[in-house]
Amino acid sequence: MEKEDILDRPIKSPPEKARFYMLFWIAGTLLVLRFVFFYMHWPYSNELLMLSGLFYELFSLLRLIYYPNKTLFQTYSYLFFIFVIPGFIFDYLHYPWAKYLLFIALVFPVLFFGQVLWDFVKRR
Predict the structure, then answer these.
(1) Separation of alpha carbons 111 and 60, rounded Å
(2) Cα–Cα dist 91/24, whole Å
(3) Are 52 and 69 in contact (CB under 8 A)?
(4) pTM for the model
(5) What confidence category does residue 26 fall into, taking pLDDT thresholds of 50, 70 and 90?
(6) What is residue 7's predicted lDDT score, i.e. its pLDDT?
(7) Which stretches of the chain are DSSP H helices?
C-alpha cells in the first residue's frame, strides 16, 4: 500500500454544490464567538446568535434544495432544523410566536417515525 503525503497533493476547489458548506462553518464560528461574547459580557452576543442561526438556516435550505439523493431521515431532519433553530432563537430572545415554530418543528419527527412505522407494518 502506497502512503500518500497530504502536503504533496494539489488543493482542489470544492464542486459547485459543495460551496455552500462554507455557510455551515461560518455558522459554527459565529456560534463560538457568541459564547465568547456572552461569557465575557461583551455586547452583540444575541446578534451573533441570530446570525449563526441564519447561516445554518441557509445551509439547511440549500442542502434540502440542491441534493436530490437524500434519505428519508435527511429530508425530515433538514425540514426539522428549518423550523427548530429560529424557534429556539426566538424563544431565547423572548419573541412572541416562537412556540408555534417549535410546535411546527415537532411535526417532522412525528411524520418521520410514522412513515417508518407504516413501512414496517406494510412489509409484514
Answers:
(1) 19
(2) 22
(3) no
(4) 0.73
(5) very high
(6) 47
(7) 21-39, 45-66, 72-92, 98-123
